[in-house]
Amino acid sequence: MPVGTQGTVKGVTPQQLKELNAQIVLSNTYHLHLRPGDELIKSFGGLHKFMNWSGPILTDSGGYQIFSLTKLRKMSEEGVTFQSHIDGSPIQLTPEKVIKIQENLGVDIMMVLDECLGYPAEREAVKKSLELTTRWAKRAKVAKVREEVSIFGIVQGGMYLDLRLESAQALVEIGFDGYAIGGLSVGEPPQMMYDIAEKIAPVLPQDKIRYLMGVGTPVDLVEAVSRGIDLFDCVIPTRSARFGRLFTKSGPLNIRNKEHRSSPDPVQNDCECYACRNFSRAYLSHLIHAKEVLFVTLASIHNLHFYQSLVLRMREEIVAGSFAEFKAEFLRSYRGELEGDARE
Amino acid sequence: MPVGTQGTVKGVTPQQLKELNAQIVLSNTYHLHLRPGDELIKSFGGLHKFMNWSGPILTDSGGYQIFSLTKLRKMSEEGVTFQSHIDGSPIQLTPEKVIKIQENLGVDIMMVLDECLGYPAEREAVKKSLELTTRWAKRAKVAKVREEVSIFGIVQGGMYLDLRLESAQALVEIGFDGYAIGGLSVGEPPQMMYDIAEKIAPVLPQDKIRYLMGVGTPVDLVEAVSRGIDLFDCVIPTRSARFGRLFTKSGPLNIRNKEHRSSPDPVQNDCECYACRNFSRAYLSHLIHAKEVLFVTLASIHNLHFYQSLVLRMREEIVAGSFAEFKAEFLRSYRGELEGDARE
Questions:
Q1: A289, A237, A292: which is closest to B12 by C-alpha?
Q2: B260 and B293 share one domain
Q3: Deepest of A90, A277, B117, B258, by most Cβ within 10 A of its Cβ?
């Protein structure tokens, strides 16, 4: 799903997002709590109305931002206190408060507060952390008031498979509407992430959504879907777009490269997105060199369309029973003509 | 008309521009000659195709940018030599070359190369300059090859009414498809600009377009239309938008101001633009404080819609014979509730 941390998917209007057939967007609890404030958004009838998005919204719990953006963090059984990355003011988030914030936002899927460690991390630290995350998950579920809203647990356990299994089993015992695998895509080799997805997805309930958080590249999506993952969120399509990295079936290209300056071709020949139907690589190259904001919009539309099409295609191939062939063909084509490294 | 110096109106797609009922856009000869190059654009079948704009395009001659952006200018009878503001490389533009560039771009309305002086300027310098501009205008008309393209002359003469009249008469003698009044909005008091428009518009042919270049605020447009001006170009709607200055019938507002942070109102209550139909001032305030690029798009859409609506309304009032009443009412309302100075 497209990621819109601050109540907008960067560079595109909700109307353009609808035209891209985006079904669900992610917003970030941490960012919206700090600015403009979840109470303000509640007074506007919730985040759907505030940002003019009528489709489903999932909010992550803020755990990732707390551990990546803030300074002077202090963990306790109760929760985590830290300084706002905007003005340094002190903030405490607890599992209960994070649910309250998400209920204020009025979203459709809430995530529990978790502790997100980096890679690598010591086994003992990971074990202690996942046990705390499990206790927090229990408290989050108890704190939930709104019946109609879904709540997802987050499997932690670093790169230790037995700890991952322990975390998954504990969460399944508590019982959630869906299960995320968190704490991946934090610097580990891709194969390590695939291995964990492969081992954890099967122990999660087959009738619930399995969500791989913060992932990933087009290759990551294909690899993870083949291991049983249903849902992803990632900034890659929009962030890469802003840096001129545009996705195609034969790998990403850097539109800043000289070869595109006089190319009459669209980014991808058979692409049906607004950018490819109407503009050449040469025009996009001109826009990015001239630092025109329209570049951000057109590039984001293209990359989001690429991701949406990829996911739709995978769904069709699964239904048709031909996913394995599709995967082999996709990887061959995508990895065949890379400009440098395909991973972000 | 919306201004898109580099082959795009900043922050909006051509599709959004069409939805705003924009009929003509301005692009800048100087910028496009330097980057990506008019020969490249010609090889793409012209600027309409390159930027995906099927409506009319007018290009200004580059005179204004030469005198505002470049260093080490050297004027001669032949033309002007200067250093590119991008890489310092030496460039010469002559009246003939500027026509050639515009014909390469394949635009609908070309402007002649003129010398654009600042304010204030000595009478003798202004006189010398306008005489050179007149000789250049003659050469430009001779240099024009493409029959189907319109060419407009540019009246200069600074703030000296007799020199303005001399310039206008000389241009009318040469004969152009339309006439611009240039060298205004360069720092002089607004009343001085209105006075010159008032005196010059009547001496220009009644069956040709009279175009006031680089103007202006909503008040400027109303004042100038009441003095016989038909066409304007200005960066104000989009540039103001980027700085958070949004136009309303009761004057511009600064969306950064605290009072808008929790306002559920649209920028303007009866406005039919995409931004006002879907978003509150509070959301726009959030976007600009969070430095979200979506702000630029929504704010630009609103301001362009304000200008388009204003011009459409003026046309209707002229046809209905009620322009004078409209003007009085507009100015009363617009100047009544200003946040600071209504002029940009």
A1: A292
A2: yes
A3: B117
